[in-house]
Input
Amino acid sequence: MDLNIRSGPDTKYKQVATVQTGTEMKASAYTLGWFLVEYKNDTYGWANGMYLFDEWLFDFGKDTWLQDVSPAEEYLEQPEVIKVTAENANARSGPQTDKTLVGRIPKDTEVVWLGTDGDWRLVNFKQPESTTRVFGWIHKSNFK
Output
């Protein structure tokens, strides 16, 4: 059975892709039974977890934080890009200061806001001086 990938975590959101059974994807976040997955290089969408548990195909990666997050409405059709206003924002593997540091983001760097957990923002950003994009949690005090 093929799996529909959607622009948001519900069947009411637009289908953006279909992946074949057996396709490996990396999950980056979870909310309300849906997983935010990378289904192509640097291309993300939401997959319904109900269809994933018969054959578990997700590679969560080291220290990836998966828990209920509230996706930013702007992500659903078009991601919201926000700027870091702090001198150097610490991006962490989870929404707490004791979680592993996954990157430092310089002031004025644009990040894509994907979700919220309390005072923390789940963002996707390009590592400085690299083409690699990373997911991390940044405290809201680093944004205006």
Observations:
- Residues 91 and 103 are 5 Å apart (CA to CA).
- The two ends are 45 Å apart (CA to CA).
